[in-house]
Amino acid sequence: MQKILRRVATAERVAAKRTKTKDLKWFKKDKKERTQEHHQQLQMAREEFSAAKQAVKDDWELGPLAPRRDVGSWAGTKGAISEVRYGTYGHITLAMRNRRCKWAGGAYNLNLSTGDRVVLLDGPDKGRIGKITQIDYDTAEVTVEGLNKSNIRIQAELRTEGDPTMVNMELPIPISSIRLVHPIKDPSSGVTRDVIINQLVHGGFLHDRVSGKRRWSRIVPGLNVSIPWPKKEEPELKDHSCDTLRIDVEEKTFVPTLLRPPMPESVIDELRNRYSRFRTRHDPEYIARLEAEEQAKEDRKKLMESMRTPLQEYHRAQREAKKKKGKPRLTLEMLEKIGEVMAKNLERTKNAGALPEAAGSDNTASSQTMVPPPSEATTQDPPTPSP
Predict the structure, then answer these.
(1) In this structure, is the dihedral angle defined by the CA atoms of residues 68, 74, 78 and 80, taken in order, positive or negative?
(2) Which of 162, 205, 313, 336 has a 20 to 30 A CA-CA distance from 177?
C-alpha cells in the first residue's frame, strides 16, 4: 500500500511540474506577443509624429514648393490618423487595469456606468465635462460624448462613391484620465453645485447566487455620501412599415379541433431533423428511399455470392456430386468383414486381460507351499510296517 501511495505522489508531482512548465511557456509567449504589439503601436505613432513634424517644417521652409502629402491613399485626410492605429491596441493586463481604475474602486467592481458625468484631466479637452456613452472593461477605457474627438482615415476600399475620406469620432480615454462629477449639497451654505469626486469606494455589497448579479453602492470616503447610479434611458422605438401591429399579433386565427392536429405537420420538421432515426413518423418518400437502399444492398450481396473462383466452383461440384450419390449403404461382404474385425478385437482384449490374472495366481501359490530340498549326507529309510 505504501508503494502505491508513493507512486501516486510521484505521478502528481510530475503532472504538476509539467503543468507549471506549460503555463510558464504560454505566459512567456503571450508576454512576447504583447510586447511586440506594443512596440508596433509606439513605432506607428512615432512615424506619424515625425511625418507631421516634417510636413510643418517643409511648409515653413519651402512654402509653395513644399511636397504635397495629401495624395494617394491619404488624399483629403490631412491631420487624420490611420484606421489601423485606431482599431488596434495593445493588451492590458489586470494589474494595469486596476491601476487605471484605482480611484473608482478597481477594475473588477467598477464604480462607473454609462450615463455618468465625468471631467477630463488630460488631452485637448482638459477641464470639459461630458457624459459616458461606452465603457470598455478589457482596456479600462471610456468614451465620452463629444469629447476627445479625432479624424480617422477611411480606406478607399471601404468607401463608396460620395462617402467622406475621413470621419470625426470620439477616441477612448483611460479611466485614470477622468473623474466623476456629481452635484452635492454644501451642508454649511445649502448650495448644490457640481463636485469633482477623486475617490469612490464600495458599500452595501450584495451578491445574488441565483442570478449571479452583484449590486453595491458607491460612496465618497470621508463624506459618507452615496452617489446614486444613473437611470438607464429607455431606447426610443420607432415604428416602421414592415413592423407587425399589435392587433395582428393578438388576433385569434386558429381554433384547435379534434379533426385536425393543433399544429401543421411541417412544424415537426422544424423541431426535429426530418431524417432523424429517433422519429417514429417519416414521409413515404423517405421510407421508400430507405427501402430502395436496403434492396440495393441485398442485391449486391447476392451478386457477390454468385461470383466464385474456379476452386470454389470445383468444391461446389464435388458437394453436389456427393449429394446425388446419397448416403452410402453397407453390403453383406462389408458386414462380414466388420464382424471378423470385431471378433478379433474382442479376442485380443480378452487375452490381454487374462495375462495379468495368471501371473498373479502363480505368485500366490509359490509363496504358500515351500518344499525343502533333499540332502545328500542324511538319507532316511522308509518306515517298515509292524508284524
Answers:
(1) negative
(2) 205
CA atoms within 13 A on the CB side of 149: 10
Instruction: Write the CA distances from 298 to 24, 302, 325, integer angstroms.
Output: 60, 6, 34
Pairing state between β 129-136 and 141-144: antiparallel
Instruction: Please say if the pLDDT value at position 387 is more than 60.
Output: no
* Residue whose C-alpha cell is 415604428: 239
DSSP assigned state of 81: B
Distance CA 199, CA 131 (A): 18
pLDDT at 90: 62
Cα(29)–Cα(287) distance, rounded to whole angstroms?
56
Question: Which DSSP state fits 154?
Answer: -
For the chain, the farthest-separated pair of C-alpha atoms sits apart, in whole angstroms, at: 195
- Contact between residue 123 and residue 177 where contact means Cβ atoms under 8 Å apart: yes
**Which residues in 58-158 belong to E strands, given as ranges?**
117-120, 129-136, 141-144, 149-153
Residue 88 has pLDDT above 80, yes or no: no
Q: Which residues contact 121 (CB under 8 A, 6 or more apart)?
A: 177, 178, 179
DSSP element (H, E) containing 43:
helix 2-62
Task: Give how far the C-alpha of residue 152 lies from the chain's centroid of Cα atoms, to the nearest Å.
Answer: 38
Q: How many angstroms separate the CA atoms of 341 and 91, rounded?
A: 103
Owner of C-alpha cell 461606452 = 134
Q: Is the pLDDT of residue 244 over 70?
A: yes
What pTM value is reported for the model? 0.55
Smallest Cα–Cα separation from 120: which of 170, 80, 83, 168?
A: 170
Amino acid at 242: C
Rounded to 5 degrees, φ, ψ at 244 are -85, 130
Q: Angle 188-193-197 (CA atoms, 0-180°, nearest 5)?
A: 95
Query: Is 144 within 8 Å of 175 (Cβ atoms)?
Result: no
Q: What is the pLDDT of residues 44-67, one digit of tens each?
A: 888 888 888 888 888 888 888 888
Which residues pair with residue 251 across a beta bridge?
none
